[in-house]
Amino acid sequence: MILISAATDDDIEWLLREDKWIGEDWLRRCVGHREYLVAKEDTILVGFLRFSMFWGKIPYMDMIRVVPEFRGHGVGETLTVFWETLMREQGASLVMTSSQQDEQEPQTWHRRNGYKEAGILNLPKIQDAAEVFFTKALC
């Protein structure tokens, strides 16, 4: 059974190994602001979801990652549904996420989970591929 909770200081060492896309200071800030959710099977950390607020008001899923040996078992979907429910309870009516244009597997996953393409942004000095944005209405 997968359990989802806000990340705590006890999870920081694991997050530092698994979330290589941000620096330690920002990671600690996100944990402190409860902007990380972690998935555990029993006591084993198997995935995380990091989020922020786009324009200070729209929940934005910055990163979702499931360790390879637990992929395909519903961990990502469980994290996402938990996050969407939490955001809905906090008054959000829309959530966002994105992936690079050349990442077909994440785009397929987002679409399968109810996200619709909302636009593309080119960031040539930051990354090689354009970023595809997705939104989902929370009814």
Molecular shape: globular
Radius of gyration: 15 Å
Low-pLDDT runs of 5+ residues are none
Chain oligomer state: single chain
Order of helices and strands: EHHEEEHEHEE
Beta content comes to 35-45%
Distance between the ends: 27 Å
- Alpha-beta content class: alpha+beta
Number of strands: 7
Number of helices: 4
- Order the strands across the largest sheet as they lie in space: 1-2-3-4-5-7-6
Instruction: Give the proportion of residues in helices.
Output: 25-40%
Description:
The chain has 139 residues and is of the alpha+beta class. The chain is built from four helices and seven strands; from the N terminus they run E-H-H-E-E-E-H-E-H-E-E. It has a seven-stranded mixed sheet, with helices on both faces. The longest helix is centred in the middle third of the chain and has 15 residues, at 75-89. It is globular, with a radius of gyration of 15 Å. 27% of the residues are buried.
Structure summarized in a few sentences:
By secondary structure, the protein is α+β, with helices and mostly antiparallel strands. The protein contains four helices and seven strands, in the order E-H-H-E-E-E-H-E-H-E-E. The radius of gyration is 15 Å and the shape is globular.
Any descriptors?
about 140 residues, alpha+beta
What's the structural blueprint in terms of helices and strands?
Blueprint: E1 2-6, H1 12-18, H2 24-32, E2 36-41, E3 44-54, E4 58-66, H3 75-89, E5 94-100, H4 104-112, E6 116-121, E7 131-137
